[in-house]
Amino acid sequence: MLSDQELARYVESFVRQAAAVPGAVAAAGGISAESVARQLGPQLGLDLTPKAPLIRDILLALFSPPPQGAPFTSSAPSPSASASASASAAAAGHFFSQQQQQQQLQTFLTASQQYQHRGGAGAAAAPPSAYGVAAAAAGYRYGQPFPQDEGAHLQRLVQMHHHQQQQQQQQQQQMAAAAAGVAAAPPTAVESPRPAAASKKESASTGVKRRGGPGGLNKVCGVSPELQAIVGEPTMARTEIVKQLWAYIRRNNLQDPNNKRKIICNDELRLVFETDSTDMFKMNKLLAKHIRPLEAKKDSNRDSKKLKPVDSEPISPAETDVNQLPIILSDALASFFGTGEKEMPSSEAVKRVWDHIKSNNLEDPANPTMILCDSKLKQLFGCESLTAVSVSELLSQHLFKQPNKL
Question: What are the residue boundaries of the DM2 domain, all occurrences included (predicted)?
């Protein structure tokens, strides 16, 4: 059995939730005793239709303005009354503040008990109804009759509640803006000027964005013959080298199925990394010895010109890059190139062979690591097909170092 006090608490909670959602009251057609009973009843599992008179009185007790010492009149308020009303509105943080709710419930319960006490003393034969208890509570609290059009009265009070919420939000925004203005105020002369200088540096650094040049990771580097067999180019930017290497790894399914970060090396990668397996973190370190700067010779020549004494001896050819030294070509390789050249750097020879393979689409579509030899490659290497990594190995048989000149 639901007591009147419990019903008052449920109705108050329902009204607070409905008033807190903008537009919910208007969508529901206003707050009335019938609508509250119709919507609150299924939530409690009870039929609250017989309790509609009590719910109406509870609603009026909740939404009626607190006593100001005089009953509500339609005449214009005095300046002092309006000032006190505005001060009390500013002091109240919310229309349904916790203190006001407790006062309303306490007044309702006190009035209900007094009414029951008086009813028991004066008319013991007829116990007071729930409607009479709530009516006595509201009459005891406010000392005035209920308005006839309580629906319009409740809607006006809900509109006042929403208006007060908007005013409170505006006040909070103004206070936040004022606090932000105080926090952003410039430092006084007593404070150190270092923060201001730091802010100038930050603004200067963020104002103009530097454009990346040809240096760094986009700088074109030389590729070793072992790595060139995989990426297919003698010179390439470091980012492009890593990109082509990962494409080769995925194309040949060299990632460990249980750990995608681990790379299982095939014969070609074993020549590059000199290990059976590696991971994506160690790969950059292992690639370092296969990537060579192209401008190293120019920089060294500049430094040698600056620091070279007059009577210094020339640099030994053994100290220069071996791949840049001309190498004697075999007759078969010279006829393969068809240019009549008998000497060229090994990197240039490898590049020309790969250019021939790619220009004639000799890579096997089913397995890109396999090369299908045409008539010229068959004559040079003596086989029908070969792997990409074996190109450098077979080509080395046609390259001969020059004899040392004494």
Answer: 216-293, 322-401
CA distance 143 to 258: 81
Who's near 281: CB < 8 A, 6+ residues apart?
261
Rounded-to-integer distance, Cα 233 and Cα 241, Å: 9
Task: Give residue for tokens 């640099």.
Answer: 315
Its pTM surpasses 0.90: no
3-state secondary structure of 343: strand
Domain boundary assignment for the chain? 1-65+102-119+128-159, 216-293, 321-400
Structure tokens at 398: 């046609």
Q: Report which secondary-structure segment, H or E, holds 163.
A: helix 150-183
CA distance 54 to 247: 78
Helix (H, G, I), strand (E, B) or coil at 195: helix
Contacts of 204 (CB under 8 A, 6+ apart): none
Out of 3.60.10.10, 1.10.245.10, 3.40.640.10, 1.10.10.10, select the CATH number for domain 216-293. Answer: 1.10.245.10
Tell me what pLDDT residue 142 has.
38
- Burial class (CB within 10 angstroms; exposed 0-12, middle 13-18, buried 19+) of 128: middle
φ/ψ (deg, to 5) at 365: -60, -35
- From the centroid of its chain, how far is CA 20? 32
The total number of residues written for the chain in this structure? 406
347-366 tens-digit pLDDT: 888 888 989 998 999 888 88
C-alpha–C-alpha distance, residues 260 and 254, integer Å = 9
Cα torsion through 19, 21, 23, 25, rounded to 10: -30
- Superfamily for 321-400? SWIB/MDM2 domain (1.10.245.10)
DSSP secondary structure string for all residues of 215-230: -GGGSEEEE-HHHHHH
pLDDT tens profile 223-260: 888 888 888 888 888 888 888 888 898 888 888 888 88
- Which amino acid, residue 64? S
